[in-house]
Design goal:
Largest sheet: 5 strands, parallel
Number of domains: 2
Structural class: alpha/beta
Oligomer: single chain
Distance between the termini: 32 Å
CATH architecture of the largest domain: 3-Layer(aba) Sandwich
Length: 223
């Protein structure tokens, strides 16, 4: 699981990063709003912790930009504000939860686990156009017809569908699907993408997996 922390107080950011890494989460940290937006909109995360008051771009504005691209990733606000209208404003901007400073790490960890558990439960069935993927039965259907996939093909399709509408970089796919890190030879990825395209392609819809040259792949509606 990968978490983004957007927090301008270095002490708090380091405290959160160290604690989450001890819990076996992978963590990226942004110390200002501009960097936060850059990471949040170009990389894939399972959850984001965003401070309300940030230099450059506020946590509210960051969350609004995130929600234009990703409706599902859980966002938890870190805030010293306690007025009701502030809370409402944060939730209306797209936050899933908020926690008031100062807070105990154990409470934050519990809130994170709730959000990740709910997110996981929502992803037992993934769909796009006439394609449906069922994680519980390990089945894939397109137009009502079952498509037989290998374990690796299924994992690759699951990752792309889970992040549909967002570009998945080659390194992100390799790390998540193959569970290894390498940057020099990723030819296996291209081979499996071709396998998937051949199995999923229909005369009506064509290829749903689009190539973003020099970056990676994406599943999204064609313009």
């Amino acid at each position: 699981m990968k978490i983004l922390i957007v927090e301008d107080e270095i002490g708090i950011a380091n405290f959160l990063r160290d604690g989450l890494e001890d819990e076996n989460y992978s963590v990226d940290v942004a110390l200002d709003g501009k960097r936060g937006v850059e990471l949040a909109t170009t990389r894939i995360y399972d959850l984001m912790l965003i401070d309300w008051m940030l230099p450059g771009i506020s946590g509210i504005d960051i969350t609004k930009q995130i929600r234009k691209l990703n409706k599902k990733v859980p966002v938890i606000f870190l805030t010293a504000r306690d007025a009701l209208h502030d809370t409402v404003m944060g939730l209306e901007a797209g936050a899933n939860d908020y926690i008031k400073k100062p807070f105990q790490f154990e409470e934050l960890l519990a809130r994170i686990k709730v959000q990740l558990r709910e997110d996981h439960e929502e992803l037992t069935t993934l769909s796009f156009d006439d394609l449906t993927l069922e994680t519980t039965t390990h089945q894939v259907f397109r137009g009502g017809t079952e498509i037989n996939l290998t374990k690796k093909e299924f994992s690759l399709l699951y990752f792309l569908l889970k992040n549909k509408g967002k570009v998945c970089t080659r390194n992100e796919i390799i790390k998540e699907v193959w569970e290894i890190n390498f940057e020099t030879d990723s030819s296996s990825l291209d081979v499996y993408i071709n396998f998937l395209r051949k199995k999923l392609e229909t005369k009506k819809s064509g290829n749903m997996i689009q190539t973003i040259r020099g970056i990676g792949y994406i599943i999204r509606e064609r313009e």
